[in-house]
Inverse folding.
């Protein structure tokens, strides 16, 4: 057992720290969504110029061939530096690796570079009103018309759609085939009349997500990723990337939030209350457990080539802990944590989404029970 | 980073697991618990294999390996619900290694490592595993400010607890007796804390395995109860708690060998997670076993009892949470 970073990993981290030192991210504007997005776009461009936009991509496509551990370090350092997520996060984390895995040479030439530079923003068109946790239930249909596909249907929970040039779209191309066999994966141009975007106002009052209405939207046949009927497998590549290194970014955010709360509790004297001290300690245990589980998960993949159970546990533990922490903040800081504009008030509301987005906790528990513990399906 | 045992360490664990699966079956544990006796033949065998002294320096007759290896063995001992003085002797040796004088180390470490003597370690005012039945007992002040070494069986009164798989004593006033110990008592407590956490990890893993097997097999309403989501989600929660305890405990065992500055925090992380998991996971196992789980005849209750005593030993989850906040905010 060795829980220290290798020399190569330390070198990578120090190079990144140096770069962050001379290229500090600055403070993300909170009040205005458009301004915040523009800020994150500029930040990604700065990462791109420095060669840091997508460390986990292969070198030939503009990445750094980073190992899993280096990717983890990258996100941890970004969290530590209080950097915002890059504007084209979905392009970097999901679209890029999926195109690298499944795309033709032409598709790679066309799409990868503008993803890295944030020149073209990407969104993800998977979820539908009737297909949330159950992706195979997708109803949006694509019908071939010459060398184009004509797409009609509805998507929901599409974040950054209003800024996006492209959409990773899963649609049904064969209504006769079994549920997950009739799907295909498209790279859809968002800039057409047939694509209507309606913001979905969430419980925080903002609209991070959108609904997409597709009325005979057109996609050239060349923009299918993988073959006709491969949609399910291509989508799995996307989803497998969904839980990559990002967890380390979220863990460091959690760590910083907890440290702030400990400072607040020291200031107002609440920390002398053993009940408060114990609750803060429990948050510390959960936060460190999350970090250790995440590192152990990566290390086991590196050592044995096979993931252990850790990967399916961290997102669940993170979302639960983030919710507990913002609730604890209300208890420790009092009702000012419930006032408009207070960062904890925002976290209290936003964190309710954590156990739903990217796989509900209930679905994650099902996956753990069936795939990790091998319990029988219904 | 290699956040897992090395091949050699895996081999030690596998060998231990196989040996205990053959020699320390639940049937045997039941016999021993019901008779109130330890399987001393097995203890002699484990001592011959060098288990109690695996982390003791070679100069004192130990195996010269580390706390990672010892934690691995204790995890397997917990998995097998091993009876006998392995945990208590191992943590006593760790305590003397850290807190003992040269002559105390000289006198005791070799004998503890070889199993010729048995030992115990605990805190003043608290229940001590094998405290009333060991050849040498170390009792520490809970704040780590001092410790005493006492010899001879009956160094402290025996105590009946809810856990018949192990013998217990109660340390009352022992700090006024025995020999003073000049070394690092706080480190001794932290090491023992990590090691008992490792036993708890093994306990959690075992009842999770037993539960998964049971709910796959047991049928109600015409299908295995393990196909019901309510049962599945309970099992998933058991896994999350177990894996959290495991990751923090391995980190702490590594810190004991390789990063002593982080040991106090790591020990509390491990014990907080392992105490909580131990109690929750074993209680959950009883629930998942349904009515049969509440009977004396089913074996899950032995693990629940062991877990309750281990969880309280050297600080409950809540105590370690409070200690962490104190460490964090100082």
């Amino acid at each position: 057992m060795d829980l220290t970073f290798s020399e190569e990993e330390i070198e990578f981290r120090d190079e990144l720290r140096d770069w962050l030192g001379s290229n500090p991210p600055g403070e993300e504007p909170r009040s205005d969504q458009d301004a915040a997005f523009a800020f994150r776009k500029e930040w990604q461009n700065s990462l791109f110029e420095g060669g840091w936009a997508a460390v986990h991509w292969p070198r030939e496509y503009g990445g750094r061939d980073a190992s899993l551990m280096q990717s983890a370090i990258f996100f941890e350092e970004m969290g530590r530096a209080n950097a915002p997520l890059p504007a084209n996060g979905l392009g970097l984390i999901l679209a890029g690796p999926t195109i690298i895995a499944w795309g033709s040479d032409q598709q790679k030439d066309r799409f990868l570079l503008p993803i890295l530079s944030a020149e073209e923003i990407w969104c993800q068109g998977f979820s539908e009103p009737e297909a949330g946790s159950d992706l195979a239930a997708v109803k949006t249909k694509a019908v071939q018309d010459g060398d184009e596909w004509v797409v009609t249907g509805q998507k929901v929970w599409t974040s950054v759609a209003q800024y996006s040039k492209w959409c990773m779209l899963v649609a049904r191309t064969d209504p006769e085939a079994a549920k997950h066999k009739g799907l295909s994966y498209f790279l859809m141009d968002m800039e057409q009349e047939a694509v209507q975007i309606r913001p979905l106002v969430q419980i925080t009052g903002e609209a991070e997500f959108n609904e997409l209405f597709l009325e005979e939207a057109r996609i050239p046949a060349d923009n299918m990723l993988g073959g006709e009927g491969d949609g399910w497998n291509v989508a799995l590549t996307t989803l497998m990337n969904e839980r990559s290194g990002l967890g380390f970014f979220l863990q460091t955010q959690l760590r910083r939030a907890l440290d702030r709360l400990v400072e607040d509790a020291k200031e107002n004297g609440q920390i002398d209350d053993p009940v408060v001290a114990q609750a803060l300690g429990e948050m510390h245990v959960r936060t460190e457990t999350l970090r250790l589980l995440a590192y152990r998960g990566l290390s086991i993949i590196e050592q044995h080539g096979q993931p252990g159970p850790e990967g399916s546990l961290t997102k669940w533990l993170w979302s639960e802990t983030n919710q507990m922490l913002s609730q604890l903040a209300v208890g420790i800081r009092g009702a000012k944590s419930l006032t408009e504009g207070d960062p904890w008030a925002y976290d209290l509301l936003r964190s309710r989404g954590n156990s739903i987005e990217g796989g509900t906790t209930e679905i994650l528990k099902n996956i753990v029970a069936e795939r990790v513990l091998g319990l029988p399906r219904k | 980073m290699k956040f897992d045992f090395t091949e050699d360490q895996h081999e030690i664990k596998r060998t231990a697991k196989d040996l205990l699966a053959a020699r320390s079956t639940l049937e045997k544990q039941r016999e021993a618990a019901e008779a109130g006796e330890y399987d001393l033949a097995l203890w002699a065998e484990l001592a011959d294999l060098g288990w109690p002294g695996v982390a003791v320096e070679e100069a004192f007759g130990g195996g010269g390996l580390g706390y990672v290896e010892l934690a691995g063995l204790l995890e397997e001992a917990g998995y097998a619900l091993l009876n006998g003085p392995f945990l208590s002797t191992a943590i006593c040796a760790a305590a003397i290694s850290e807190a003992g004088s040269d002559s105390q180390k000289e006198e005791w470490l070799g004998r503890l490592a070889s199993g010729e003597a048995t030992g115990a370690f605990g805190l003043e005012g608290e229940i001590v595993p094998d405290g009333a039945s060991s050849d040498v007992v170390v009792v520490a002040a809970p704040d780590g400010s001092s410790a005493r070494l006492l010899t001879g069986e009956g160094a402290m009164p025996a105590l009946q607890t809810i856990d018949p798989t192990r013998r217990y004593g109660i340390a009352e006033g022992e700090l006024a007796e025995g020999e003073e110990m000049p070394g690092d008592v706080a480190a001794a407590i932290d090491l023992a804390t990590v090691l008992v956490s490792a036993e708890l990890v093994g306990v959690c893993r075992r009842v999770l395995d037993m539960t998964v097997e049971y709910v796959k097999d047991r049928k109600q309403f015409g299908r295995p109860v393990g196909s019901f989501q309510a049962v599945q989600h309970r099992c998933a929660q058991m896994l999350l708690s177990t894996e959290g305890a495991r990751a923090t405990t391995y980190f702490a065992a590594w810190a004991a060998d390789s990063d002593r500055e982080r040991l106090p925090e790591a020990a509390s992380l491990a014990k907080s997670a392992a105490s909580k998991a131990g109690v929750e996971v074993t209680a959950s196992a009883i629930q998942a076993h349904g009515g049969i789980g509440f009977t004396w005849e089913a074996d899950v209750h032995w693990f629940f009892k062991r877990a309750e005593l281990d969880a309280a030993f050297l600080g409950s989850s809540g105590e370690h949470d409070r200690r962490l906040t104190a460490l964090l905010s100082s």
Notes: The mean pLDDT of chain A is 94. Residues 122-229 of chain A form a domain with the Butyryl-CoA Dehydrogenase, subunit A; domain 2 fold (CATH 2.40.110.10).
